[in-house]
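Researcher: We're teaching a course module on how sequence relates to structure. For the next exercise, students receive a sequence and then see the predicted structure as tokens, so they can try to spot secondary structure elements on their own. Here is the exercise chain.
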Amino acid sequence: MNFEEEIEELESAEDFLQYFTLDYEPSVVHVNRLHILQRFHDYLQKAGTDMPENESAKRAVYSKLLLRAYQDFVESDAQTEKVFKVFSMGQAQTAFVALGDIKT
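Model: And here is the predicted structure for the students to work with:
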């Protein structure tokens, strides 16, 4: 199995951290697992075309970016990091629904 195939088999933040043999605090991952994975994805997107072709070099870049994503949430929190759109919305969102539009 090559690197990309192995990565496709991983499902959780813990799976990724264990795959890359990164030390982590379970309580940090438990609270921030989706944020860590989204930040990791964002970092991979930014790396985009600069990713090495060599599998071991690529693996090292992935590991470094995952560690960086994890560290973001060790040193900060989800509300501060604003990974997801809902955290970056400045104001509460409101919508008007007329009583006549409600169907039972």
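Model: If you want an answer key for the exercise: The helical segments are 3-8, 13-19, 26-47, 55-75, 78-81, 85-88. The longest helix spans residues 26-47.
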